[in-house]
Amino acid sequence: MALDIALKIYIPEKLVVEKNAYRVVLPTEGKTLTVIKGRAPTLMVVDMGVVQILDESDRVVEEYYVSGGAADIKEDTCTVLTEAAINSKEIDLAQAQAMYDNFANPFYKWLIEELSRGKNR
Question: In the chain, helix, strand, coil percent, each to 5?
């Protein structure tokens, strides 16, 4: 039996992420929630933060900065709807600052703070 969770992350314009993961960690209510196969169906609020994709050894293999939104979790799927989702490997502090300078919003401000703390994974 495969232990994969089908993860999809959507922004209003498109599907940003579509991949299988062993576990998915979502930011919620100031803490995190780990999604595993077989979890009871849940519809929940996702906070601004980092969505982590983990492998069988619980190592983080990929991360996405998200601006908050909602997650629909079913037995073997996790769908996240958010306004913004950025792969942590595809952004640096200078890019985040440019985005904030172009359109000041709380997510870009948080992203600058996150990257300034050395959280660029």
Answer: 20, 50, 30
CB 77 within 8 A of CB 55: no
Q: What angle do CA 95, 21, 52 make, to 5 degrees?
A: 35
Helix (H, G, I), strand (E, B) or coil at 105: coil
Sequential pLDDT tens for the chain (121 residues)? 356 899 999 999 999 999 999 999 999 988 999 999 888 899 999 999 999 999 999 999 999 999 999 999 998 999 999 999 999 999 999 999 999 999 999 999 999 999 999 754 4
Determine the Cα–Cα distance for residues 85 and 111; give it in Å rounded to an integer. Answer: 11
| pTM of the entire predicted model | 0.90
CA atoms within 13 A on the CB side of 40: 1
